[in-house]
């Protein structure tokens, strides 16, 4: 890991919402008196009935309870739309960029957003959806997905989005798991020039659901779809005749806004439940401060609304702040590896937020696709989802940001609702690979993994936990509060346990070392798989790498590395030796991989997370128990890796 620091420029700091002194002052206040701090910042959104109580939270196993603004009432959709109408009704709320670069972009103003959301809310109501009911979204990245989320919020229904890449089985489980009344989908989802038959998937899923579940269909591509009379409803046709008026429902701050199942990289998915009031305050505040969002800026988060990042930073955070937010239907490499940058140029994007996996994929195509475009509108770059290796960080910084855009490496989770560890771009000197410091009101601690004792020294290594609550924290696991307590509060009593390992350096900066189950122990030395991966990826010929532990007769665990080479590089024994040597010199002999297997592709979830559980099983020669592979983006990758697996000599 690199320890080079990049301080914000004086010009950026002066214009930013928070410079270093402001961050330090506000942070100290937020920790000294959280209720005073969040009582004040809760006012950033509009309340129907103002709260008199700020927090009421308890992390003790057996009585875990998280409440914020509990006696306040509000409507989330009114906060994201109605309250902006007087001042910015004609401002673009959403820029929709279709999959095909030849199709026209759509600019949807706050007024138009209001009208569409009200119409769809009335369609939901006419189908019998009422306050507290669940609605499942299985949608492409199109404006109707945003309308559907906000229409639910408007009438007090709870949305549960299932990423459009998931299979019919997964969809059926989610519909049944939340006893949803209705699913909304589209005929087809175009991505990368290919259409996925979403409605056919929904048909297959609905075979396993209650007959009463209605299916609302957005005719998006006009592609052929079968139609079940009485169950299927043409949304656009219904919206055209529905009333454009729909009064927002008065909701309690603690009423659930949405359920979102966490990605399938560990065990059975859990339905993470988020609140209305606290969640919105936290999403909006992090969006403003982390990205230093100012009125008039164009903000683009490349995530899909099927993931929490899309919820908080495409829809709720930006719209609560009256922002212009970009929604992109396609993929980074279609029609070519310059698409992201073409869109940044076209819509004059000011803040750009993506994932390290996308950065590495684009990096493998070289600098030319970036340099073709005018990226002078960019003011800030962000990353999320996994530790970013310094090599990718530097490329992002130099080639995309031209050395003038601060990079915010944001650490958070579906469970946290918004950023917990992140630089504030006008305040924090960044270090490539570090998520740096806590956001306001966040109290991270590093615990010794075995003893569970808090490590008070500044320099520390252990598991990442949080001592106190914040407004955006998940409230429960849908239908299973006991599982909520057991998953997050039982390993380390009295703390929220995030499941990640971390190191805190002498400056108090946090470095995420990956999920705790990804930490391997080689001859008694604990090592983050991310660290070895980062070293491998720093080699000029390596595009991507995944490292897992495997049982080793002498060392306890050995290091098994799966390596994807850059386009056009031949895998040779010489290169293998070169990589071993490379890692030895980058980190030390202890980190030298015992096995390097060439991997044309890595098994990933559809959100782009490497499925290490599967890689561990392959490394352990234990294919019989590969577990659930239904969330893999490309199951063929696994067979390929099994057939080319390497034995320890
Ligand atoms: C937002 C999101 C959460 C897990 C988390 C951690 C990893 C996310 C990270 C990061 C290092 C970052 N993670 N951001 N690791 N640096 N900046 O990704 O939510 O899908 O629930 O994943 O992702 O391991 O625990 P989610």
Automatic annotation (TrEMBL):
<dbReference type="InterPro" id="IPR000873">
    <property type="entry name" value="AMP-dep_synth/lig_dom"/>
</dbReference>
<dbReference type="Pfam" id="PF16177">
    <property type="entry name" value="ACAS_N"/>
</dbReference>
<feature type="binding site">
    <location>
        <position position="584"/>
    </location>
    <ligand>
        <name>CoA</name>
    </ligand>
</feature>
<dbReference type="GO" id="GO:0046872">
    <property type="term" value="F:metal ion binding"/>
</dbReference>
<keyword id="KW-0547">Nucleotide-binding</keyword>
<feature type="domain" description="AMP-dependent synthetase/ligase">
    <location>
        <begin position="82"/>
        <end position="469"/>
    </location>
</feature>
<feature type="binding site">
    <location>
        <position position="542"/>
    </location>
    <ligand>
        <name>Mg(2+)</name>
    </ligand>
</feature>
<feature type="modified residue" description="N6-acetyllysine">
    <location>
        <position position="609"/>
    </location>
</feature>
<keyword id="KW-0460">Magnesium</keyword>
<keyword id="KW-0067">ATP-binding</keyword>
<keyword id="KW-0479">Metal-binding</keyword>
<dbReference type="GO" id="GO:0016208">
    <property type="term" value="F:AMP binding"/>
</dbReference>
<feature type="binding site">
    <location>
        <position position="500"/>
    </location>
    <ligand>
        <name>ATP</name>
    </ligand>
</feature>
<feature type="binding site">
    <location>
        <begin position="409"/>
        <end position="414"/>
    </location>
    <ligand>
        <name>ATP</name>
    </ligand>
</feature>
<feature type="binding site">
    <location>
        <position position="537"/>
    </location>
    <ligand>
        <name>Mg(2+)</name>
    </ligand>
</feature>
<dbReference type="GO" id="GO:0003987">
    <property type="term" value="F:acetate-CoA ligase activity"/>
</dbReference>
<feature type="binding site">
    <location>
        <position position="515"/>
    </location>
    <ligand>
        <name>ATP</name>
    </ligand>
</feature>
<dbReference type="InterPro" id="IPR042099">
    <property type="entry name" value="ANL_N_sf"/>
</dbReference>
<feature type="binding site">
    <location>
        <position position="309"/>
    </location>
    <ligand>
        <name>CoA</name>
    </ligand>
</feature>
<feature type="binding site">
    <location>
        <begin position="385"/>
        <end position="387"/>
    </location>
    <ligand>
        <name>ATP</name>
    </ligand>
</feature>
<comment type="function">
    <text>Catalyzes the conversion of acetate into acetyl-CoA (AcCoA), an essential intermediate at the junction of anabolic and catabolic pathways. AcsA undergoes a two-step reaction. In the first half reaction, AcsA combines acetate with ATP to form acetyl-adenylate (AcAMP) intermediate. In the second half reaction, it can then transfer the acetyl group from AcAMP to the sulfhydryl group of CoA, forming the product AcCoA.</text>
</comment>
<dbReference type="InterPro" id="IPR011904">
    <property type="entry name" value="Ac_CoA_lig"/>
</dbReference>
<feature type="binding site">
    <location>
        <position position="539"/>
    </location>
    <ligand>
        <name>Mg(2+)</name>
    </ligand>
</feature>
<protein>
    <recommendedName>
        <fullName>Acetyl-coenzyme A synthetase</fullName>
        <ecNumber>6.2.1.1</ecNumber>
    </recommendedName>
</protein>
<dbReference type="InterPro" id="IPR025110">
    <property type="entry name" value="AMP-bd_C"/>
</dbReference>
<keyword id="KW-0007">Acetylation</keyword>
<dbReference type="Pfam" id="PF00501">
    <property type="entry name" value="AMP-binding"/>
</dbReference>
<feature type="domain" description="AMP-binding enzyme C-terminal">
    <location>
        <begin position="531"/>
        <end position="609"/>
    </location>
</feature>
<dbReference type="Pfam" id="PF13193">
    <property type="entry name" value="AMP-binding_C"/>
</dbReference>
<dbReference type="GO" id="GO:0019427">
    <property type="term" value="P:acetyl-CoA biosynthetic process from acetate"/>
</dbReference>
<dbReference type="InterPro" id="IPR045851">
    <property type="entry name" value="AMP-bd_C_sf"/>
</dbReference>
<keyword id="KW-0436">Ligase</keyword>
<dbReference type="InterPro" id="IPR032387">
    <property type="entry name" value="ACAS_N"/>
</dbReference>
<comment type="similarity">
    <text>Belongs to the ATP-dependent AMP-binding enzyme family.</text>
</comment>
<dbReference type="InterPro" id="IPR020845">
    <property type="entry name" value="AMP-binding_CS"/>
</dbReference>
<feature type="binding site">
    <location>
        <begin position="191"/>
        <end position="194"/>
    </location>
    <ligand>
        <name>CoA</name>
    </ligand>
</feature>
<feature type="domain" description="Acetyl-coenzyme A synthetase N-terminal">
    <location>
        <begin position="23"/>
        <end position="80"/>
    </location>
</feature>
<feature type="binding site">
    <location>
        <position position="523"/>
    </location>
    <ligand>
        <name>CoA</name>
    </ligand>
</feature>
<feature type="binding site">
    <location>
        <position position="526"/>
    </location>
    <ligand>
        <name>ATP</name>
    </ligand>
</feature>
<dbReference type="GO" id="GO:0005829">
    <property type="term" value="C:cytosol"/>
</dbReference>
<dbReference type="GO" id="GO:0005524">
    <property type="term" value="F:ATP binding"/>
</dbReference>
């Amino acid at each position: 890991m690199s320890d080079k620091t990049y301080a914000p420029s004086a010009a950026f700091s002066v214009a930013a919402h928070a410079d270093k002194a402001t961050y330090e002052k506000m942070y100290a206040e937020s920790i000294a008196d959280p209720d005073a701090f969040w009582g004040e910042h809760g006012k950033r959104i509009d309340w129907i009935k103002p709260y008199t109580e700020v927090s009421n939270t308890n992390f003790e196993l057996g009585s875990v309870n998280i409440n914020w603004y509990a006696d306040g009432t509000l409507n989330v959709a009114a906060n994201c739309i109605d309250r902006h109408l007087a001042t910015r009704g004609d401002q673009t709320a959403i820029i929709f960029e279709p999959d095909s670069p030849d199709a026209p972009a759509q600019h949807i103003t706050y007024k138009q957003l209001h009208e569409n959301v009200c119409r769809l809310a009335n369609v939901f109501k006419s189908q019998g959806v009422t306050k507290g009911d669940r609605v499942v979204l299985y949608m492409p990245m199109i404006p109707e997905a945003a309308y559907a989320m906000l229409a639910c919020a408007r009438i007090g229904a709870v949305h549960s989005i299932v990423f459009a890449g998931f299979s019919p089985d997964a969809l059926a489980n989610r519909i049944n798991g939340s006893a949803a009344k209705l699913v909304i989908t589209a005929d087809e989802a175009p991505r990368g020039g290919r259409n996925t038959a979403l409605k056919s998937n929904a048909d297959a899923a609905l075979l396993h659901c209650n007959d009463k579940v209605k299916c609302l269909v957005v005719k998006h591509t006009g592609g052929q779809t079968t139609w079940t009379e009485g169950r299927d409803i043409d949304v656009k046709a219904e919206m055209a005749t529905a009333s454009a008026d729909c009064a927002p429902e008065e909701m309690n701050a603690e009423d659930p806004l949405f359920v979102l199942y966490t990605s399938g990289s560990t065990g059975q998915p859990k339905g993470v439940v988020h609140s209305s009031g606290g969640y919105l305050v936290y999403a909006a505040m992090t969006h403003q401060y982390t990205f230093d969002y100012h009125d008039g800026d164009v903000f683009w988060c490349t995530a899909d609304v099927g993931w929490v990042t899309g919820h908080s930073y495409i829809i709720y955070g930006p719209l609560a702040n009256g922002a212009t937010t970009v929604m992109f239907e396609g993929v980074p490499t279609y029609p070519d590896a310059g698409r992201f940058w073409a869109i940044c140029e076209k819509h004059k994007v000011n803040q750009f937020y993506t994932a390290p996996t996308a950065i590495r994929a684009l990096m493998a195509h070289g600098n030319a696709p970036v340099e073709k475009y005018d990226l002078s509108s960019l003011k800030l770059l962000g990353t999320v989802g996994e530790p970013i290796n310094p090599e990718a960080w530097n490329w992002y910084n130099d080639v995309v940001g031209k050395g003038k855009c601060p990079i915010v490496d944001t650490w958070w989770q579906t469970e946290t609702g918004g950023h917990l560890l992140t630089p504030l771009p006008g305040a924090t000197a960044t270090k490539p690979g570090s998520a740096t410091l806590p956001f306001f009101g966040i109290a991270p601690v590093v615990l010794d993994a075995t003893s569970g004792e808090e490590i008070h020294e500044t320099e520390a290594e252990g598991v990442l936990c949080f001592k106190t609550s914040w407004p955006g924290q998940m409230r429960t696991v849908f239908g299973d509060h006991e599982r909520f307590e057991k998953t997050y509060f039982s390993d380390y009593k009295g703390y929220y346990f995030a499941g990640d390992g971390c190191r805190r350096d002498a400056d108090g900066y946090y470095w995420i070392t990956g999920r705790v189950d990804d930490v391997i122990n080689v001859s008694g030395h604990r090592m983050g798989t991310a660290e070895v991966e980062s070293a491998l990826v720093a080699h000029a010929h390596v595009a991507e790498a995944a490292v897992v532990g495997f049982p080793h007769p002498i060392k306890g665990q050995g290091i098994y590395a799966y390596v994807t080479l850059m386009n056009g590089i031949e895998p040779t024994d010489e290169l293998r030796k070169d990589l071993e040597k490379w890692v030895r010199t980058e980190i030390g002999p202890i980190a030298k991989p015992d096995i390097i297997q060439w991997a044309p592709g890595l098994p990933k979830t559809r959100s782009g997370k490497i499925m290490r559980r599967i890689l561990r099983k392959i490394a352990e020669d234990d294919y019989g128990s590969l577990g659930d592979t239904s969330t893999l983006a490309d199951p063929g990758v696994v067979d390929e890796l099994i057939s080319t697996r390497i034995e320890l000599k």
